[in-house]
# Entry
Amino acid sequence: MRLCIPEWRDDDAKEIDMSVIGAIGVAAGVALIAAFACRSQIKMRLLALTSNVLFIGYAAMLDLAPFLILNIVLLPVNLWRLKDLFNTRRPTQKSWKMDADVHEKVRDIQAYSRYDSAGIEF
# Structure
C-alpha cells in the first residue's frame, strides 16, 4: 500500500511505503503502553521520550498537526522531568551513604559500652 503525501513536499518524497509508517506508529504505541506500565519513573520517562520521538516522526509523515504539536510539547517536558529525577537521585544516594556511616559509628560506640536493664552504663 502506498501513501500519497501532500503536494507541498518534494517530488521525490511523494510516495512512502505505508508499512514503514505503520511500523513507526506501532512502535510508538508500544513504547507508550510500556511507559504506562512502568513502576520506575526513570524507565517511564525514557520510554515516554522514545514514544514522543517516534510519534513526532509518525505525525510528521502523515501531516497530523495536532498529534505532532502535542508530542513536540511533551518532549521537553519529559526531558525536564527526567533531568529532575537524575538530579534528585544523586543527593539521596549520598545521604544513604552518610546514613550507613552514621549507623556504623553508632554500632562501634555501642560495642564499647554495656548497659544493664535499667539503662545505666557500667
The first strand starts at residue 2 and ends at 4. The chain has a mean pLDDT of 80. The chain has one domain: 2-90.
